[in-house]
Design brief:
mainly alpha; rod-shaped
Length: 167
């Protein structure tokens, strides 16, 4: 039992000073030693000898790191709220007069202007919103891709006749 404690103490030492995982101990012996000692901490997710240097440096397990990385991609709630408020004010300006609004002349707040990706996202959203507003008024700059509507009589004849039409 004292040899297993000594082996565990050696694991805590740096690699160069005789520490680290001894080469002569197999993974099966390590697992048996952990189970025989009672309840294990459960911090080691990997048992094949591969160590994650980030997990040891931060003191967290592999599962926790995945979740934290996912949350780190999302800005905090106050920043999301500020962005939403900026977007709402710009959209209100577009709704007032969609023809005179120019997304290139937008003066974004510093937190948006400092992040090129966020600035491009804002400008793209504003352009799309302006196009949607222009389309809803029926006076969009771009011609519609729909074919002209058939006169009512031709549409009624075409839909009511079950006989094939001759060419």
């Amino acid at each position: 039992s004292s040899s297993s404690v000594q082996r565990l103490d050696n694991l805590l030492l740096p690699q160069g000073e005789g520490g680290g995982k001894p080469e002569d101990i197999s993974d099966e012996e390590e697992l048996d030693g952990d189970d025989a000692g009672g309840a294990s901490g459960g911090d080691d997710d990997q048992q094949d000898g591969e160590e994650d240097p980030d997990a040891h440096a931060e003191g967290v397990g592999h599962r926790q790191r995945r979740c934290r990385g996912k949350k780190a991609k999302r800005p905090c709630k106050s920043r999301r709220t500020r962005y939403k408020a900026v977007l709402d004010t710009m959209e209100a300006k577009i709704r007032q007069d969609p023809f005179s609004f120019d997304p290139a002349e937008v003066n974004p707040p510093p937190f948006v202007a400092s992040d090129p990706k966020l600035l491009e996202k804002l400008l793209t959203r504003l352009r799309d919103y302006q196009a949607a507003q222009l389309g809803s008024t029926g006076l969009a700059d771009e011609p519609r891709a729909q074919p002209p509507a058939q006169p009512l009589r031709e549409a009624a004849v075409a839909s009511s006749s079950w006989w094939p039409q001759s060419p």
